[in-house]
Amino acid sequence: MCRFIAYAGNPIILDDVLYKPKNSLIRQSIHAREADEPLNGDGFGLGWYVPEIDPYPALFTSIQPAWNDRNLQYLAPKIRSNCFFAHVRAASSGGVSILNCHPFHYHRFLFMHNGDIAEFHKIKRYLRRQLSDEAYDWIKGSTDSEHMFALFIDIFNQNKCHLTAEDIGGAFEETLQRIQLLQKEQHVEGINYINAAITDGRSIVAVRYISEKASKAPSLHFSEGSYYEYYGGVCHMRPSRAGQNGAVLVVSETLNSYKAEWQDIPVNYMLLVRDDLSTKLQPVKV
């Protein structure tokens, strides 16, 4: 399965997360430690925000393996951002194509997914029938992930949601409910593995969901503190001061071996990272 990183907080240089940590995302692209399949070489993507220029994110995707992309090597030390998503892909649903690389972008939103919608081919036609013309035409690739995001877009817009972590999380819960209703109608009996993250550049919602609790869910962790830094060859999340966060990381795999800096997102929970960087764990109601 894929690996990803989401960050919100004080602006940092992307290289300090993507390349420098002992278990960096680039390292995970070739040797993931917390996944059954260690190789994630079917492309990568990077989305980042520069709010002083534009509220919409920049996006860079490629079908090159992340560990062997010179453009990414040149870009990462030169980009500073207060919010970014990065994703390395192991293709499951959808072939190796730049149109299938995460994160996906719609207006202010970025979305990325690690996992699988069970027997997606059985519900794909029915899911697309539910979409508005705008969301239907927006889809460019063939992955279950992009279709799930398109459904989220419609639900968010139709419900006239606000750009808050709570409303984003609520719209994604309804997305999962609709998908599982379609699966029930088409007699799908497989297991959904949904590790996903959504951001509008200010808030982040990260979901760790599996439709069969007896199965093993993919790993998903987070770290929060006053600031993240790479210093003396080691990356650290420094403790919060007076209970006020200055940085939050959500990761498929921990970036260092300091266990005290990391918390698991429990299975079938979502992490809400609000625009003030306060966090809340709450159950996924599906």
Describe the SSE topology:
Blueprint: E1 3-13, H1 15-18, H2 25-31, E2 44-50, E3 54-62, H3 70-75, E4 80-88, E5 104-106, E6 109-116, H4 120-130, H5 133-138, H6 144-158, H7 165-185, E7 193-199, E8 204-210, E9 221-225, E10 227-231, E11 234-238, E12 247-251, E13 263-264, E14 269-273, E15 279-283
Antiparallel strand pairs: 1-4, 1-12, 2-3, 2-4, 5-6, 6-7, 7-8, 8-14, 9-12, 9-13, 10-11, 14-15
Helix pairs in contact: 6-7
Q: In summary, what is this structure?
A:
Helix content is 24%, strand content 33%. The chain contains seven helices and 15 strands.
Outline the structure in words.
With 286 residues, this protein is an alpha+beta fold. The protein has a single domain (3-283), classed as Glutamine Phosphoribosylpyrophosphate, subunit 1, domain 1 (4-Layer Sandwich). Helix content is 24%, strand content 33%. The chain is built from seven helices and 15 strands. The protein has a seven-stranded antiparallel sheet. It has a six-stranded antiparallel sheet with strand order 5-6-7-8-14-15, with helices on one face. The model has no long low-confidence stretch (mean pLDDT 95).
